[in-house]
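call fold(seq) -> C-alpha cells
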Amino acid sequence: MGIGGISIWQLLIIALIIVLLFGTKKLRTLGSDLGGALKGFKQAVKDKDDEDDDKDAKDPDQIGTEAMRNETHNDADTEKAKDK
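ret:
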C-alpha cells in the first residue's frame, strides 16, 4: 500500500495521465516557477531575520552605559542592605 491506501501502480498511472494532459514542457516550467517562488520566499524570510537581528544589536557605547547603570544600581542596593 502507498500513500492513503493508493498503490504505487495507481500513483504511476495518475502521473502518466498528468504528463499526457499538460506535457513535460509545461510541467517543467511549473516546477521551475514553483522552485523560484520557494527560493524567493526563503530569501525574504532570511532577510527579515537579519533585519531583526540588526535592530536587536546595540551600540557599544550603550552597552557600557547600561553596565555602569546596573553596577551603580547594585551598589546602591548593597548599601541599603548594610544600613538595615
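Residues 3-83 form one domain.
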